[in-house]
């Protein structure tokens, strides 16, 4: 148990090597689930400036790591992605890559806004080890359809406020 956060559940599969060559479904949430990455209107995602930074850094991951991002979506307060590690035993782990992604996006956003020290992301992330092709296709479809299902999403808040904002655009 984590003594800093006694109610926090372990987020990684105990004993699993997260540097293994395989596919992972990743979800990263913004701090306090603030809706600072995108707006969802009429079933599509409109990236905000921070979302554009995140988009650029996700696209750069394959140039920085022996990894691929097969699918991803940037939602108002979280991102989903399929991250595929291709490296050998000395390659970066899922945690290494996500820590770096969170760090560089936070630094770039704070530089852009002049807000040194602002936290963008929640402390950890959720992962799911993709088991087979059927699992992969189900997750791919979930990522692709996520903006259309935003109002049913567990991270969705303030339905009436969101609808009023979308109607004004």
Structure characterization notes:
The termini are far apart. The relative contact order is 0.20. The chain contains 4 helices and 6 strands; from the N terminus they run E-E-E-H-E-E-H-E-H-H. Strand 4 and strand 5 form a beta hairpin. By secondary structure, it is an alpha+beta fold. It is globular and about 40 Å long. It is 35% helix and 21% strand. The protein has one domain: Transposase IS200-like (Alpha-Beta Plaits, 2-Layer Sandwich), CATH 3.30.70.1290.
Task: Please state how the strands of the largest beta sheet are arranged side by side.
Answer: 4-5-1-6
What is the H-and-E element order?
EEEHEEHEHH
Number of strand elements: 6
Binned strand content: 15-25%
In short:
This protein is of the alpha+beta class and 169 residues long. The chain is 35% helix and 21% strand.
Question: Could you list some keywords that capture this structure?
Answer:
alpha+beta, about 20% strand, about 170 residues, disordered C terminus, Alpha-Beta Plaits, 6 strands, single chain, 4-stranded antiparallel sheet, about 35% helix, two-stranded antiparallel sheet
Lay out the secondary structure:
Layout: E1 23-29, E2 38-41, E3 44-47, H1 49-64, E4 67-74, E5 78-85, H2 94-113, E6 126-129, H3 133-145, H4 159-168
Antiparallel strand pairs: 1-5, 1-6, 2-3, 4-5
